Amino acid sequence: QVQLVESGGGVVQPGRSLRLSCAASGFTFSNYGMHWVRQAPGKGLEWVAVIWYDASNKYYVDSVKGRFTISRDNSKNTLYLQMNSLRAEDTAVYYCARYDGGTIFGLDQWGQGTLVTVSS
Amino acid sequence: DIVMTQTPLSSPVTLGQPASISCRSSQSLVHSDGNTYLSWLQQRPGQPPRLLIYKISNRFSGVPDRFSGSGAGTDFTLKISRVEAEDVGVYYCMQAKQFPFTFGGGTKVEIK
Q1: DSSP annotation string for B46-78
Q2: Distance, CA of B26 to CA of B9 (rounded, Å)
Q3: Which H or E run includes A102?
Q4: A106: which chain B residues are within 8 Å (Cβ-Cβ)?
Q5: 3-class SS shares of chain A: helix, strand, coil, % to 5
Q6: Which of A61, A104, A111 lies nearest to residue B48, judging by beta carbons?
Q7: CB–CB of A108 and B60 under 8 A?
Q8: Chain B neighbors of A111, CB-CB under 8 A
Q9: pLDDT digits over B23-66, tens only?
Q10: pLDDT at A14 over 90
Q11: What's the burial of A91, exposed, middle or buried (CB within 10 Å: 0-12/13-18/19+)?
């Protein structure tokens, strides 16, 4: 079955960096666009970034542009989110999600999330 | 950016009774390809989001038929025909017409 497992979260000081990973299994990873979505404590969902199936295109929400970088390694079935210059407002659970652009045109599979806490 | 507005914020429902959630977008979600990329997600307490409905009205695999979606253009509705205890959680609409994808603020469904 499809599995997405995030890792790399933790407590980090403002201004520092963190890299999140999302290990995918149970499907052909290289055929799907992948997204990061975050959820601040007690708040709603916020879309963060997307990467095309072949990494040819990437888009970011304005609040993370220039600080976050999404990437993928299709040989390792892994999605990444490099987060630099972290701010308190980046504190959230970060989910990776698969985008089905063939039939569903939506985020059809989600990981359990990894918590990032930015605090001094 | 497309703004997604959900109402109500909270919906206390008696078990077995229907529930309805509205979602309005700040611009039409009809893509140039003719499809409307509006989906609904459910987030149970302590769980990640889960896709319920895609392209307005299509139930995702394994979703009970008591869930239904409708609407067009900028106005959309999610209905639960008879609320069960396992339906407690927060429901989000999401547009995938253009980047950035955006979500509604969420509607909390709880049992009276």
Answers
A1: TS--EEEEETTTEEPTT--TTEEEEEETTEEEE
A2: 18
A3: none
A4: 37, 39, 51, 54-55, 94, 96
A5: 10, 55, 40
A6: A111
A7: yes
A8: 48
A9: 999 999 999 999 999 999 999 999 999 999 999 999 999 999 99
A10: yes
A11: middle
